[in-house]
Amino acid sequence: MPMSSSPLALRVAIVGAGPAGIYAGNLLANAVRDRGGRVEIDLFESLPAPYGLIRYGVAPDHPRIKGIVNSLHEMLDAFPAASEGEGEAEPAARRTIRFIGNVEVGRDIALDELRERYHAVILATGAIRDAALDIPGVDLAGSYGAADFVAWFDGHPDVARTWPLEAREVAVIGNGNVALDVARVLAKHAVDLRSTEIPDNVLAGLEASAVTDVHVFGRRGPADIKFTPIELRELGEVRDVDIVLHDEDFDGVDPTTASNNQLKVMLRTLNGWRDRPAGTASRRLHLHFWHAPVSIEGDGRVESIRFARTTTDADGRLVITDEVREYPIQAVYRAVGYYGTQVNGAPFDAARGVVPNDGGRVDDEAGLYATGWIKRGPVGLIGHTKSDALETITNLVADAEAGLLSATDGPDVLDLLDERATEYTTWDGWLALDAHERHLGETHEHTRERVKVVPREEQVAVSRDGALVP
């Protein structure tokens, strides 16, 4: 096809309003405008509110959440109208980037219906399910996926309002940031979460928790942890919780030979905790290394967990030894990774949990793209998401300039959603919900920046009528 000689004029749908989708929309809007073109972007989200895992996947006691949310907010609010300053007759209400929430692509609207109405569709659905852990006993009562627990304590509208917290001794399997979030929330006294945006039902559940000991188990050693320094440091700052480490796990570990500065900092932190005198706190957080899960034991519900001790060979490969250890616990939280969220009608690699793609171009599907965890798998931090989105958008714009994207057909997607009586939410609706939650926080008995609204129907109602409830 010939190269396009006129400025780009694109309509693009992005499925998923977490960081990956928002970064992609922001980068696309800037890229097209820098070329003198025009772009209209619709950002679809299955939840009534934006921000994805930043709102529903990060522990509420992380102060840096506010900064990330503010940045994402500015990106969505930065392009008010496609015709602003251009002197065109297009309605001013038409935003360059429109947020369309409470709409699940594949249920409320088909992917093919989007592809008929847009030059391109970008999948940014992320990964919200727990990856599988294939060991005996994983389905016993008291065995939970970490993603489900995180969704509960973050007030996700589609999970139960209560969580069983009767266990005194708990195991968390995993050596990443999610494992630390889960362990910290379980070990932390609920009173110390009152100042956060934690929902009231979650706070009440944690206040009744019976936990005394939380054990975190990693397959590899201290030199292979996947935490970040700030996550690890936060553990040592939790009030009335002792950190318990085991000297045998540190044999041969030398912080001075760590592969990078972040790891050096974390190993120094761990060694500092080892040097602390035995504590007298009411709760304990145990960090175990060199433990590969073998089975979860119990008669109908979790009673203990068995691990094989591990080591590494001369080439650094993990080796399972014959030594097996068993720990009495009454609950297990599996933080072994996430699994991608499939979109009905899109190609999907079930083994990897991703959309098969090349640089963000979905295999054999012209005009369909992917970014974020659904593109590369659930690894990496926010910085990786930005660079990942840049690759996808660079390829999309190149395809558009080469004339490889099909023309659009059909009316505005909102007309279709209105015909179906779909209760979608908008950016103005999110601003109303945001103001409502902040109002709840200001008037709460424990003053907070916000109190999250949990029920989906209440989020939708506030978003659609904008009313503040006294």
Task: Outline the structure in words.
The chain is an alpha/beta fold. It folds into two domains: 9-128 and 339-424, 3-Layer(aba) Sandwich (Rossmann fold); 135-336, 3-Layer(bba) Sandwich (FAD/NAD(P)-binding domain), CATH 3.50.50. The protein contains 14 helices and 18 strands. The protein has helices at 19-34, 53-56, 64-77, 111-117, 146-153, 177-187, 200-207, 229-236, 261-274, 373-376, 382-401, 413-419, 427-443, 456-465; strands at 9-15, 38-44, 97-100, 120-123, 127-130, 143-145, 169-173, 213-217, 241-244, 283-288, 291-297, 304-312, 318-328, 331-334, 338-340, 357-358, 361-362, 368-370. The protein has a six-stranded parallel β-sheet with strand order 6-14-7-8-10-9. Strands 3-2-1-4-18 form a five-stranded parallel β-sheet, with helices on both faces. A three-stranded antiparallel β-sheet has the order 11-12-13, with no helix packed on it. Helix 1 (19-34) packs across helix 11 (382-401), helix 8 runs parallel beside helix 9 (261-274) and helix 13 (427-443) crosses helix 14. The longest helix is centred in the C-terminal third of the chain and has 20 residues, at 382-401. It is globular, with a radius of gyration of 24 Å.
List the helices and strands and how they pair.
Blueprint: E1 9-15, H1 19-34, E2 38-44, H2 53-56, H3 64-77, E3 97-100, H4 111-117, E4 120-123, E5 127-130, E6 143-145, H5 146-153, E7 169-173, H6 177-187, H7 200-207, E8 213-217, H8 229-236, E9 241-244, H9 261-274, E10 283-288, E11 291-297, E12 304-312, E13 318-328, E14 331-334, E15 338-340, E16 357-358, E17 361-362, E18 368-370, H10 373-376, H11 382-401, H12 413-419, H13 427-443, H14 456-465
Parallel strand pairs: 1-2, 1-4, 2-3, 4-18, 6-14, 7-8, 7-14, 8-10, 9-10
Antiparallel strand pairs: 5-15, 11-12, 12-13, 16-17
Helix pairs in contact: 1-11, 5-6, 6-8, 8-9, 13-14
